[in-house]
Amino acid sequence: MNMNAASEIINTKQLRLELPRIIRRIAEGQRYLVLHRSKPTFEIIPHRSEAAPLPPLEQDPLFRLGPLGNSTDGASATDHDRFLYGS
After folding, report:
1. Which residues, listed in sequence order, are joined to residue 10 by a DSSP beta bridge?
2. How far is CA 57 from the centre of its chain?
3. Which residues make beta-bridge pairs with 9?
4. Distance between CA 46 and CA 48 in Å, rounded?
5. Does 68 fall in a domain?
6. Which residues are registered as beta bridge partners of 62?
7. Over 70: is that where the pLDDT of 3 sits?
8. Domain count for the chain
9. pTM
10. 18: in domain
11. Residue 19 in domain
12. What 3-state class would DSSP assign to 23?
């Protein structure tokens, strides 16, 4: 967990009670580190409007992964891909 000094530390009770104010502050760029039972649990960060570019598909280790098992329905991997992702 990135406990960066720019984050404001709040607990879950504060999050519930002050949600509208916290949302406004997040929209202004504020980051929050939320504690649950006195332990850092998650961060709330402003949404970035520009998404980080994805690497080329050929560099994705899952894309390059070979077959992992056998189909029990007799369909090929290509058939499964067509069913899941369309033509």
Report:
1. 34
2. 19
3. 33
4. 6
5. no
6. none
7. no
8. 1
9. 0.52
10. yes
11. yes
12. helix
Altogether, the residues listed in the chain come to a count of 87
What secondary structure letter does DSSP report for 58?
G
Tell me how many degrees the CA angle 45-50-52 measures, rounded to the nearest 5: 85
Asked whether residue 25 is assigned to any structural domain, the reply reads yes
Closest by Cα among 70, 66, 4, 12 to 31 = 4
**Tokens for 77?**
């991997």
Instruction: State the pLDDT confidence band at 4, using cuts at 50, 70 and 90.
Output: very low
C-alpha separations of 10 from 19, 27, 45, 80 in Å: 11, 17, 13, 47
Range of the domain at 12: 7-44
The CATH number of the domain where 37 resides is what?
A: 3.40.1620
Tokens 């369309």: give the residue: 86
Dump pLDDT digits (tens) for 8-61.
999 999 999 999 999 999 999 999 999 999 999 999 999 876 777 877 888 877
